Amino acid sequence: MISVQEAQTIILKLVESLQETDSISLDEATGRILAQSISSPLNFPYWDNSAMDGYGIRFEDVKQSNSDYPITLDIVAEIPAGINPKQSIQSGEACRIFTGAMLPDGVDTIIMQENTRKEGRKVTILSPPNYLGEFVRKQGSFYQAGNILLNPGSYINESEMAILATAQCSTVTVYRRPRVAILSTGNELIAPTEKLNPEQIIDSNQYALKAFILNNGGIPISFGIVKDEPEIIKQKIRKAINTADFVLSTGGVSVGDYDYINSILAELGGKIMVNGVAMKPGKPLTVAKFDNGCIYFGLPGNPVSALVSCWRFVKLALDKLSGIQGDYEPKLITVKSQDNLSSKGQRETYIWGQLKLINGEYVFTLAQGSQNSANLINLALTNALAILPIGVTKIDRGEIVKVLSLSN
User: Fold this and answer.
1) 343 vs 347: CA distance, rounded Å
2) What is the pLDDT of residue 350?
3) Which tens digit of pLDDT belongs to each residue from 250-262?
4) 154 pLDDT more than 90
5) How far is CA 362 from CA 329, 372, 385, in A?
6) Can you say how many angstroms the Cα of residue 142 is from the centroid of all Cα atoms in its chain?
7) CB neighbours of 313 closer than 8 A, spacing ≥ 6?
8) Residues 6 or more apart from 206 whose CB is under 8 A from it?
9) What is the average pLDDT across 183-192?
10) Cβ-Cβ contacts under 8 Å for 54 (sequence gap 6 or more)
């Protein structure tokens, strides 16, 4: 067995980022990975505008104003947002103006309406502005035309969508989504729609892995349940590696009499790069690469083990494959444990539970029920894994623990 860090290093070296791109509409861009640099021919703000509801004035007219000697100006215009003002504001004049409205010529400062008193067509300045240009958003002060707004490899989320819209990107070039094949091996497995007999197990892995792939920007391709017959498994794997960028299979990678995956991968020309990792759960992990670039992840059959392997390794590999720019490191944070945590200390141990905010501080709480790799029931609401390194057999309540956050 190799260490978790060694496995991560090997896996990431195997992955080459996708180069194929899709051109999509802006409406479809959320959750995709940008494949182009984005800039705009427009400044932002597009023009000088008001940051407040109030009055547009000339700073020189009112800088000496105070409560003892208030200055009164003539209101000569009203400028709501969306209007291109035609009238210039002269000395001794003011305009009523609203947030986001374009400044007319002559206005260089905004007085908040709270600092004024309006009487008919006149406004008295009760408190002077603090400086020339107060509450004015200057053209180009947020962004100057021609500069880079977003770089290739950016994940397009709410903020990025706002920027793309502002830059008038009606179409966006993104990297294509990774294609990930899924198959489950085992004579004991049945689909959720079938009648359960005493010797059988409902295949939950197919659905868990599909959700994992979708949540990480991939396209899942289901190859269903494959019985423990070497020739059938071989046919399915051959088809999968010629269809997808990654293949995720569950079961068949341990050392039992019906564990055929590793030998089949070798027969098909796969170079096995990882064959067992010193971690719990998730020890029987196989990773192989084929000449066509496909990477095969032979995951353990137990549901928790399969997901932990995905959260720890496949997530990073998918990020790199997708074209996301970053350091491809797990999202580790240090928090206090709300519970006693234990391990045999022989392997790096992952304990599932939840990150919770209690009294303004994030803490890790252990999932209720047994920490058994076959017990998928208490995986519900899991959003973090506490990590006990090799040699550490316990962490007491209140002590610090390193946690892998599962939030995207």
Assistant:
1) 8
2) 98
3) 987 665 554 689 9
4) yes
5) 21, 25, 14
6) 25
7) 7, 8, 11, 285, 287, 297
8) 182, 184, 222, 224, 225
9) 94
10) 97, 110, 111, 112, 113, 114, 115, 116, 135
